[in-house]
Each structure stands twice: as C-alpha cells, then as structure tokens.
Design goal:
mainly alpha, cell membrane, transmembrane transporter activity, transmembrane helix, ABC transporter permease, transmembrane
C-alpha cells in the first residue's frame, strides 16, 4: 500500500509541475493580451530541444547535465513562441488561428525529427541517457529535485512580480486596456513581446521536464498543453489559483495515465478501492477530459479573462 501511495504522490507532483508551468505560460501570454492556444506545440518544441541536446551527449548519464538540457528546452520553446508573436503582434493575425497553426506545425516538425530517416532506426524516438537531478530516481525523494525548485521559484516570482511590482501592474494593464497604457507613455508592443518571450520559456521548460520522465521524445506531449489552458481558465488567470488547480488536474490526469497500464491500474485500484477496477480503466481514462469540460463550463463565465486578450492592438485607434 505504501509503495502505491509513494508512486502516486511522486507522479501527481510531476504532472502538477508540468501542468503548472504550462498554464503559467498561457497566463503570461494572455495577461499581455495575446491568446495562445499553441502551448501544446510550444511544449513539444521544448521537449524536442531537451531531447536533442540530451542525445548529443551520447551515453553520458551525469545528472548535472540537466541544466544544459533545460537550456535546450528553453531555446526550443522560445524560438517557436516568437513565430506566434510575429503572427499576432507584427502581422496582426487572428490569435486562435495562429495558435492552431503552431500546433499543426509542431506535429510536422516533430514528425520529421522523430522519423526513421532522421534517427536511423525504427524506434522513432529521440532518446537520451542523462539522469534527472534529484535525491532519488523514484519514490518520495524524487520529488525533491531540480524540477521542483524551478517550479516553486517560478511560481513565487510570477506571483510577486504580477501582484506587487510596477512592471506587473503595467503588464496586466496591457491585457486589459492597451490604449490607456499607451496614453500613459508606456510601450504596449514591448510588453506584448515580453509576454510572448516569457510564455515560450515556461512552455519550453514544461516540455523539457515532461520528456525527462521518459528519457525520449516521440513527437507528443500527450495533450498536456490543452489541459494547461483549462487550468489557466479555472485559475482565473491568477498565479496562486493556477498553482492549486495544477495539482487538482494532476490527480485526475495521473488516474488516466494509470488506467492505460492494466497491471499497474489493477494494483492501484486494489490498494485504494479494495477492488479490481481494470474493466473500468477506459472510464478512468476519460476523467481528466470530462473534468476539463465541466470546469470550463462552470468557470468560463465567472472568469472572463483579460478584456483585451485576443484583440489586436492598433495604436492609431486609441
């Protein structure tokens, strides 16, 4: 029973960190007035950057190399997010269409880099051997890791900066009333680009941390980017609420992941529910997505989001 509980808590923390970072990436983008549903694709490019750098080190397993791999993830996510910034800020294209295009482009890029022709094998997996920097590879001690400190540091910094700093107040004002901000002599475009850059960095980090768990990238981040958007909405675009919601969604998502592994799900259900629920695995697999739909219906009207999110800013119309 303790082994099951230990593994469950470890995985809940892992998915909460990935979802929390990805949701915060979306939060920064929308607080600057740019709707970004391309978080999924940006995470995938961060994961690809992480895995590609890891693969370049060959058989090296030194955990401290994770710092270098995370830089690769940040660069991958950042470069990809700049495409969205160019489309929405410079070209003033429709934000949702640009985000969908990014997700489709990410699938194409990932398919190329994970193809048999590029990798030279039939696995279609960009694999690497760099170990995670943590107290232990599994169990409770795995929670105390580089990813946890990164997550806590980013969430605390984001909360303080957005709530208490002059920069944060201006940043949020850009997403609410950019014309008023411009009249005050503040460069609206600068803050929008800052939102894009921060969003790309955080989404890239989320993708890199996700792919570390499998030590390989197969072209997908399993829809976590879309769940992150639901967390952002349910969290009312507030860093503290996003932090809490990321753990709630993580519990449901882990149940879905577990449901795909029949032996593991059998052990889990017998340990927690004292009954073999393997036959109901498909229902448990639906839980996070049903919960997402319910939460969106329940909270979308209660949290309308930044007033100017998705509206292209035109300086001449102030």
């Amino acid at each position: 029973m303790m082994d099951i509980l230990e593994t469950s808590i470890q995985n809940v923390f892992f998915y909460a960190i990935v979802l929390g970072l990805a949701a915060t990436a979306g939060l920064f983008s929308e607080r600057a007035g740019i709707v970004n549903i391309g978080i999924e694709g940006t995470m995938a490019m961060g994961a690809l950057g992480y895995a590609a750098v890891g693969k370049s080190f060959g058989e090296t397993e030194t955990p401290y190399l994770q710092f270098v791999l995370l830089i690769g993830a940040v660069i991958g996510g950042l470069l990809f997010s700049l495409i969205h910034g160019f489309a929405t800020i410079i070209l003033k294209s429709e934000h949702t269409i640009s985000g969908v295009a990014l997700n489709i482009l990410a699938v194409g890029v990932a398919s190329v880099f994970c193809s048999k022709e590029v990798l030279g094998d039939a696995q279609q997996l960009v694999s690497f051997n760099v170990q995670e920097l943590s107290l232990a590879p599994t169990g409770f001690k795995n929670i105390i890791s580089l990813k946890l400190f990164i997550f806590i540091g980013i969430m605390v910094l984001a909360f303080v900066m957005l709530k208490y700093s002059k920069w944060g107040l201006r940043f949020k004002a850009v997403g609410e009333n950019p014309q008023a901000v411009d009249v005050a002599g503040i460069n609206v475009y600068s803050y929008k680009w800052q939102g894009i850059v921060i969003s790309g960095i955080l989404a890239g980090l989320a993708g890199g941390i996700f792919v570390q768990s499998t030590r390989g990238f197969n072209g997908s981040v399993s829809g976590l980017g879309f769940l992150a958007l639901a967390i952002m909405i349910m969290g009312h675009w507030n860093v503290l609420y996003v932090f809490i919601c990321s753990f709630i969604f993580s519990i449901f998502y882990y149940m879905a992941v577990l449901a795909k592994d029949a032996p593991a799900f059998k052990t889990f259900s017998e340990g927690f529910f004292k009954k073999d629920l393997t036959n109901y695995g498909a229902l448990f697999g639906m839980v996070p997505f049903v919960f997402t739909l319910i939460s969106l219906v329940a909270f979308s009207k209660l949290s309308p989001g930044p007033a100017a999110a998705g509206v292209n800013y035109d300086k001449s119309k102030r």
